């Protein structure tokens, strides 16, 4: 991989997979713009990167807010002079049956999980076009393909939409040297997976080919691959990274 001196924005970088993505890219020499709605957690990610001799800038950002997204992207580009990689990771996953989902909750899940992808892509693409280079990677989910295995219809809907958004955007910007891909993780050992019982997680493990939950590093390694200049002939793709629970 050749990511030395690249720059990246990672959303939802305060914990879980987002933190893993940021640490992986920073370890490859990428300067990271970290954002999360939780200031304390995103600052902790920045500290971990600094302790590993990496470079990052941490911001508290509500990813569904247009003004905050635009200001964050503009400031990071002003500091670094370019923007090579965008990782759309921020997401929420309330576990409610449809009868118990309010309109407000539905709208909030779609705003955090899906609108944020639109807002960040729209904000970074002008810079990527000017550079004639960019890598956009959005985190979808196995639930976006099969509807999910636990109750969260708004989450599944948002993740399915990311797949279609990825394909459409890839066609729009490919001629400018920008690739757009997504990743569909299976169940990963993060706080989100801990929302369900150990017994439910064991059912998932038993269904998998590799007989384990995923680790955030499993997804981070694919992020690094898709972020690399050598991946320039891959676009519009949604990569399954699920240990064999869904093969398509």
Summarize the structure.
By secondary structure, this protein is α/β, with parallel strands linked by helices.
Order of helices and strands: EHEHEHEHEHHEHHE
Biggest sheet statistics: 7 strands, parallel
CATH architecture: 3-Layer(aba) Sandwich
**Radius of gyration, taken over Cα atoms and rounded to an integer in Å:** 17 Å
Q: How would you name the oligomeric state of the polypeptide chains in this document?
A: single chain
Q: Indicate the CATH class.
A: Alpha Beta
CATH superfamily: NAD(P)-binding Rossmann-like Domain
Low-confidence stretches: none
**Apparent shape:** globular
Strand order of the largest sheet: 3-2-1-4-5-6-7
Class computed from helices, strands and strand pairing: alpha/beta
Number of domains: 1
What's the total helix number?
Answer: 8
Topology:
Blueprint: E1 7-11, H1 16-27, E2 31-36, H2 39-51, E3 56-60, H3 66-80, E4 85-88, H4 103-131, E5 134-139, H5 143-146, H6 153-173, E6 178-185, H7 198-207, H8 216-227, E7 238-241
Parallel strand pairs: 1-2, 1-4, 2-3, 4-5, 5-6, 6-7
């Amino acid at each position: 991989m050749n990511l030395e001196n690249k720059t990246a924005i990672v959303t939802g970088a305060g914990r879980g997979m987002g933190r893993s993505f940021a640490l992986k890219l920073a370890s490859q020499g990428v300067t990271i713009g970290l954002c999360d709605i939780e200031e304390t957690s995103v600052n902790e990610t920045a500290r971990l990167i600094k302790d590993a001799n990496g470079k990052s800038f941490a911001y508290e950002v509500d990813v569904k807010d247009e003004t905050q997204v635009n200001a964050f992207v503009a400031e990071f580009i002003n500091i670094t002079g370019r923007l090579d990689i965008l990782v759309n990771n921020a997401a929420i996953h309330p576990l409610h049956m449809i009868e118990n989902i309010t309109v407000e909750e539905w709208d909030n899940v779609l705003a955090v999980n899906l609108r944020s992808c639109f807002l960040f892509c729209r904000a970074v693409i002008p810079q990527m076009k000017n550079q004639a280079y960019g890598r956009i990677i959005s985190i979808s989910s196995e639930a976006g393909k099969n509807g999910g295995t636990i109750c969260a219809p708004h989450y599944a809907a948002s993740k399915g939409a990311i797949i279609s958004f990825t394909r459409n955007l890839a066609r729009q910007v490919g001629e400018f040297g920008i690739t757009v891909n997504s990743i569909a993780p299976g169940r990963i050992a993060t706080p989100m997976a801990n929302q369900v019982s150990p017994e439910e997680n064991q059912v998932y493990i038993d269904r998998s080919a590799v007989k384990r939950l995923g680790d955030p590093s499993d997804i981070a390694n694919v992020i690094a691959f898709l972020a690399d200049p050598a991946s320039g002939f891959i676009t519009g793709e949604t990569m399954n990274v699920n240990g064999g629970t869904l093969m398509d």
